Amino acid sequence: MESIVVAITGASAMQIGERSIQVLLENSKKVDLILSKGAYEVAKSERSINIPVEPKAQGDFWRNKLGVMSGKLTCYRWNDHSASIASGSHKTKGMVIVPCSMGTLGRIASGFSLDLIERCADVHLKENRPLVISPRESPLNLIHIENIKRLATAGALIVPPIPAWYTNPKTIDDLIDFIVVRLFDSLGEDLDYIKRWDGPNK
To answer: Quick one: which of 170, 190, 174 has its CA closest to 182?
Structure first.
């Protein structure tokens, strides 16, 4: 089974990335997880969570926090350029960056890889594998828009974390689930966590 690479950067909305991990593992998927250096700081400042950096400890942390033992989870340091997923010869099903900061997006668009997330994104583009980017910024300036266009032209799919309202969400978790399912629809993963649109109510 080929893995799905999930990357979480230092943009607000880490909850979406966290739920992505949980949903994939609940569906017995194989997940390769990378947090950027900034993501650890966001976890501390926004959620008062100290996420271990060491891969084995981090894997245990997520298993305990998310309460899921199924699937396969492998965690990587943000600067581990020798990781298997940094090579094009290592097969994956695709990569999702959620949330994606504009700094990360801009470096990927420029082919400038400072960390493992950016290198993996570069690999997915050059190997013509699915790369789904969920940028979290507002408002967008022209540089942001041009970088998004450049990535879309290169083959990435841009999926902003925008919820739908036709599902009649009752909680923030309902909104997050919609975003997560739509992200992984782009990789062909049929995750049955939401009510899908089937026309107006009669």
So the answer is: 190
Q: What are the residue boundaries of the structural domains of the chain, listed by start? A: 3-185
DSSP-derived 3-state class of residue 4: strand
Q: What are phi and psi of 3, to 5 degrees?
A: -85, 160
Q: How does pLDDT run across 60-81, given as a tens digit for each residue? A: 999 999 999 999 999 999 999 9
DSSP helix/strand/coil, 7: strand
What pTM was estimated for this model as a whole?
A: 0.95
3-46 pLDDT, tens per residue? 999 999 999 999 999 999 999 999 999 999 999 999 999 999 99
Domain 3-185: state its class.
alpha beta
Residues 73 and 34: their CA atoms lie apart, in Å, by: 11
Strands (E), the chain: 3-8, 30-35, 72-76, 92-100, 131-135, 157-158
Task: Report which of 198, 196, 195, 186 is spatially closest to residue 20, judged by C-alpha positions.
Answer: 186
What's the CA gap between 185 and 62, in Å, rounded?
A: 23
**Residues near 20 by Cβ (< 8 Å), separated by ≥ 6?**
6, 96, 98, 180, 183, 184
The 3-8 sheet, strands edge to edge: 72-76, 30-35, 3-8, 92-100, 131-135, 157-158
